[in-house]
Every structure is written in C-alpha cells, then in structure tokens.
C-alpha cells in the first residue's frame, strides 16, 4: 500500500462505518461509509488515495487530491503556524509545509509551487524546494511562448517552473517588473541552454514590445500632468525604478513617440504634445 498515491484496492470486509480495503499483502485501510460507492461488495475493487487522518491513522478516500506524492503543483496556503504552513491539498486534512522546506516567507492566501513527499515519520509533507524535481527536457524552442510559476527569486535570476514541470529562469537583464513568488507569467523562450534548461523573458520581441512600452510611457507621462520629469540622460536604475523598463527599451519607446509626434524633449524633460 502506497501512501500519497492513487491505487486500486479490494474490499476485504464491510462495517457499519465503512469498508476495509486490502492490498493483498496483509495491509488494510478504512474507506469511510460516506465515500463507499453504491453497490460495493466484498471482493469489489475501488480506486482510492491513501493518506493519514487527523489522528495519524491510515485512511482512504475516493476523492483525488490536487497533487500526488512525487508531483509538483500549486497549492493554497490555508494557515501559518510555529512549525510551518498548512496547504490545501483538496482533502479533509491539509498538508504541512515545514519551515525547513520553505524558500521564502509565505502567508495565508498565497498560492505556491510545492513538491509532495513522504517524510521520515511516514506522513505526507510539502516542500517549496522544487528546483531538483523539475525536468530540463522541455519540448520548447527559442521564441516559443510559455506559461510558468515563479518559485524562487535570487540575484542570479528569477526561477520559473514552465508548465509547473520544466526548469526555466528569467535573467536579471530581462526582469523589469515587480515579480513575486507564486506569480503566473506569460513568457517567451529566449534561449535553450545546452543542459536543456530555458532562459525566459516576460517581454515580447523588441519590435512587438516597442508598441507596448511606448503606450506605457505615454500613459505615465500623461498621469504626471504631461511631464515625465527627466529625459534619456538619467541613470538606468532610475528608469527601472520609476518605469519598469530597461534603458534601451526606454530609449526605443521615446524614439517611437517622438516619431509619432506625441512628445517633445524640452530642457531635460519629456512632455506630451
């Protein structure tokens, strides 16, 4: 009998409160009466998920949890305690994310990517350290558009699970937005590394991104009363902090708006026309 897995077990005996299922190897588990399928008899086979209840007893359910042992998936943080966070796995009992298995602080209401495993005490547990459980062998190639979940943020880049299965990273020079753990992002593959891992960008190709950046810049200038307060000579850090753009993207957007006759540069300031 496998904890945390979907398996087919045979009805061994019936009781008023449910039926006992066996794996044929001397182990049995209770399936509560409220979940026993209609017409179930001794000898019937039932597909169930096996876990531990609030009293730490093995219990079976016909419900399918959000993820199984050995899988990576997104789970909702139900509560946080002194020992870790409890996550909604879709069953009557939540699963624990121990503090030692977190990578960043989480709070109630967060939806985070985790790996489900069986801990040393033979209980189901979750780990936010999913990097080693993702595959580098994705079917994607350069310029493909993908969707993924942010699971870790470091100076070297933002780590993303593409399709919640494959290893990807947004390099620092491609990240100009406020991105946080748990975010679902639409991205573009900018490189497939030799080891199969993906380098990603939340930005479109330059010629497609230009129009978006130009619109964003124009709206910001308008929101400031028609005056941006600086021109292209300012530092890349200020541009990133105030506009969420790289300096090159900013200069391209300014050039496009100048060409369109929507702005002018006067005395170190960019203004709407």
Write the layout of secondary structure elements.
Blueprint lengths: L5 E10 L2 E5 L5 E5 L12 E8 L5 E4 L10 E9 L3 E5 L6 E4 L12 E8 L5 E4 L17 E10 L2 E6 L3 E5 L13 E9 L5 E4 L4 H18 L12 H8 L3 H14 L2 E4 L2 E4 L1
Parallel strand pairs: 13-15
Antiparallel strand pairs: 1-2, 1-4, 2-3, 4-5, 6-7, 6-9, 7-8, 9-10, 11-12, 11-14, 12-13, 14-15, 16-17
Helix pairs in contact: 1-3
Walkthrough of the structure:
With 273 residues, the chain is mainly β. The protein folds into 4 domains: 6-61, Beta Barrel (OB fold (Dihydrolipoamide Acetyltransferase, E2P)); 72-131, OB fold (Dihydrolipoamide Acetyltransferase, E2P) (Beta Barrel); 134-201, Nucleic acid-binding proteins (OB fold (Dihydrolipoamide Acetyltransferase, E2P)); 206-272, Winged helix-like DNA-binding domain superfamily/Winged helix DNA-binding domain (Arc Repressor Mutant, subunit A, Orthogonal Bundle), CATH 1.10.10.10. 15% of the residues lie in helices and 38% in strands. It is built from 3 helices and 17 strands. It has a 5-stranded antiparallel sheet, with no helix packed on it. It has a 5-stranded antiparallel sheet with strand order 8-7-6-9-10, with no helix packed on it. It has a 5-stranded mixed barrel with strand order 11-12-13-15-14. The longest helix is centred in the C-terminal third of the chain and has 18 residues, at 206-223. The model has no long low-confidence stretch (mean pLDDT 89).
Number of domains: 4
SSE sequence, one letter per element: EEEEEEEEEEEEEEEHHHEE
Helix content: 10-25%
Q: What profile does the largest beta sheet have?
A: 5 strands, antiparallel
CATH architecture of the largest domain: Beta Barrel
Strand order of the largest sheet: 3-2-1-4-5
Secondary-structure class: mainly beta
Rg over CA atoms: 26 Å
Low-pLDDT runs of 5+ residues are none
Give the overall shape, derived from the CA principal axes: elongated
β content, as a range? 35-45%
As for the CATH topology of the largest domain, it is OB fold (Dihydrolipoamide Acetyltransferase, E2P)
Number of strands: 17
Report the top-level CATH class of the largest domain: Mainly Beta
Q: Quick one: CATH superfamily of the largest domain?
A: Nucleic acid-binding proteins
């Amino acid at each position: 009998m496998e904890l945390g897995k979907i398996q087919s077990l045979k009805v061994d005996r019936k009781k008023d409160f449910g039926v006992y299922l066996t794996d044929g190897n001397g182990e049995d588990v209770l399936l509560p009466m409220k979940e026993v399928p209609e017409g179930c008899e001794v000898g019937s086979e039932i597909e169930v998920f096996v876990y531990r209840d609030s009293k730490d007893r093995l219990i079976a359910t016909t419900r399918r949890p959000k993820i199984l042992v050995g899988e990576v998936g997104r789970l909702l943080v139900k509560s946080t305690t002194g020992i870790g966070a409890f996550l909604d796995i879709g069953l009557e009992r939540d699963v624990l994310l121990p503090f030692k298995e977190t990578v960043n602080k989480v709070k109630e209401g967060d939806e985070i990517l985790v790996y489900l495993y069986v801990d040393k005490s033979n209980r189901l547990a979750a780990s936010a350290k999913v990097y080693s459980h993702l595959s580098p062998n994705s079917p994607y190639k350069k310029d493909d558009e993908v969707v993924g979940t942010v699971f870790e943020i470091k100076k070297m880049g933002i780590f993303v699970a593409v399709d919640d299965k494959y290893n990807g990273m947004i390099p620092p020079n491609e990240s100009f937005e406020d991105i946080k753990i748990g975010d679902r992002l639409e991205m573009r593959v900018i490189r497939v590394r030799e080891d199969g891992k993906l380098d990603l960008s939340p930005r479109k190709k330059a010629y497609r991104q230009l129009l978006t950046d130009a619109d964003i810049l124009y709206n910001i200038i308008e929101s400031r009363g028609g005056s941006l307060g600086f021109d292209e000579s300012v530092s890349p850090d200020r541009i990133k902090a105030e506009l969420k753009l790289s300096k090159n993207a900013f200069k391209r957007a300014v050039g496009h708006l100048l060409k369109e006759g929507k702005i002018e540069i006067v005395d170190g300031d960019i203004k709407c026309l």
